[in-house]
Amino acid sequence: MELEPEAEHGCEMPDPPDAQADRAFMRLALDQAQNAWLLGEVPVGAVLVREGKVLATGYNRPVGDSDPTAHAEIVALRQAASLLGNYRLLGCTLYVTLEPCAMCAMALLHARVQRVVFGAFDPKTGAGGSVLNLFAESRLNHHAQLHGGVEAAACGALLQEFFRERRRLSAQARAGDVERAGEGDAREAASGGIEVKHLDEPEEDFDV
Asked: How big is the CA angle at 51 (ends 46 and 56), to the nearest 5 degrees?
């Protein structure tokens, strides 16, 4: 099943029959993304739904958990599997505010999730059609229905605002370091001899 691109990618994706429910659940996923932001994580949130009811939720937490796999989708999948006592999550739909990466896409397929709905497209790491489409890979033994671009404007705006804030804070930190360096050795600072580097400067795109 191939993912149709959103309007920015050439044409508008048609709404599925349950478009209203999709938007409602995506707004819940956005609430989860806000939780990630409050903890200083890239704001991506996920909600896992079965039979119209929320089964599990998750938000990005790789920094806080010191876990490179702790993306929002993985957190939600782990919670649901633990709750059900089964790693196969048949009949479930996963809503996530950002297009899944390759790791998350394969986890969703391994879990036998029936349907995946995402918000913003990720042109750097998206595995739902932007960089590659694992959901349409015919050689895999399971496939999930895929729909992207749901509440894309709101999902994308949240990410853009987060990175804008990160850049602002990073610039302030650099300015403060330069000012302190200047107080310590004005001549060296003026000559450009002091270089200030920050290892946590944010990416421009939605790379998580």
From this structure: 30
pTM for this prediction: 0.78
pLDDT of residue 169: 83
Q: Which of 116, 118, 39, 113 is nearest to 80 (CA)?
A: 113
| Catalytic residue IDs | 73
Q: What are phi and psi of 113, to 5 degrees?
A: -60, 135
Please state, in angstroms and as integers, the Cα–Cα distance from residue 41 to each residue in 117, 171, 195, following that order: 22, 19, 27
- At residue 53, the 3 state secondary structure works out as strand
**Bridge partners, residue 94, by sequence:** 48, 116
In the chain, the percentage of residues whose pLDDT exceeds 70 is: 76
pLDDT, greater one: 68 or 1: 68
Burial of 160: CB neighbours in 10 Å, binned 0-12, 13-18, 19+: middle
Q: Tally Cβ neighbours within 10 Å of residue 31.
A: 14
CA distances from 66 to 61, 96, 142, 146 (A): 8, 21, 30, 30
- Residue 9: phi and psi, rounded to 5, are -95, 10
Amino acid, res. 112:
R
Residues 152, 123 contacting (CB under 8 angstroms)? no
Chain segment 71-101, per-residue pLDDT in tens: 999 999 999 999 999 999 999 999 999 999 9
